[in-house]
Amino acid sequence: MLDRTGTPAALRTAAEIADEVLFPAALATDAGERPPVGHLDLLAREGFYGLAAPPGVGTLDLPDFPAVCRVIETLAGGCLTTTFVWAQHHSAVMAAANSGTPGVREAWLEPLATGTRRAGLAMGAVIRPGPPQLAAKAVDGGYVFTGSAPWISGWGAVDTLYTAARDENDTIVWALLDAAESPTLSVRPLRMVGLQASATVTADFDNHPVPAERITALMPLAEWVARDPSTLRFNGSLALGLAGRAIRMLDGGPLADQLDQARDDLDQAGPQDLPAARAAASELALRACAALAVHSGSRAVLLDQHAQRLMREATFLLVFGSRPGIRDGLLDLLSRPRR
């Protein structure tokens, strides 16, 4: 549904949440141990946990994928930590919606789409070249997972892990697991320069049982590698949101036009162009946040100032969700001679 200005109602609601709830609390959130549960509850009440749900399940009425990305950008401009944890939930929603495993859609889609269940994401150990850090072995009744998942965010704020492990045939086994420590699953907290309150951990699996009814899909690694470039748009919105907040605090200027261009480039990029567009968005976030720090003067180094928080978060986004093409694009942008 659009309002009289043509803005989707969900985007207007996201802007209200970002400006009236998330941003005023962002410094306190940054200093905490995990995102405030009240923020996540609010996103659930307003239907935002169903952002990736299919029609008839989700309650948001967004006209197209760019509008979905604009919601993520808007919330990220309010509080990157909260948005970062919430954004990783949507892979599980899509997995439940599209699973061919009998009973998965019926058991998981509605709780995930409403935020009754909240998911984290553990996939980085599988898509890297070489032997998988998290291995899957078929056993009677399902699989066991052994190894580590190096980056899982939202520990203590999520109850479900959408997890990928890889078997000896280079098949990715995707599963919905309980986000709880057990004799076969333990976690180690990580300390990071930014988003420390995202409660990001490394998880260690030791023959962790995965029942067949928790498997959402099996996918050859080569198929994932082929489709991966088309998935890069989603996370680019985090950098745009950070840049947009810094630019608003600078009262616009030439960086505002660059933000619009970066957004258009991401929306229009094909899979082959997305790494460069993602790199440009992250580089813009870094420049915008650096400009805000300079504009703020010596106060920018104080921990009660948004400038230092945004600068640390921009550093985080330089490497989050990276791929070789994004890294190479960033290194090129950051190494170019300046007049």
Explain the overall architecture.
There is one protein chain. This protein has 339 residues and is of the alpha+beta class. It has helices at residues 9-22, 26-30, 37-45, 65-76, 80-87, 90-98, 104-114, 124-127, 221-227, 233-249, 254-268, 274-296, 306-319, 324-335; strands spanning 119-122, 134-139, 142-152, 160-166, 171-178, 185-189, 201-211, 215-220. The strands form two sheets. The protein has a four-stranded mixed beta sheet. The protein has a four-stranded antiparallel beta sheet with strand order 2-3-7-6. Helix 10 (233-249) runs parallel beside helix 12 (274-296) and helix 12 (274-296) runs antiparallel to helix 13 (306-319). The protein is globular and about 60 Å long. The model has no long low-confidence stretch (mean pLDDT 94).
Short description:
The chain contains 14 helices and eight strands.
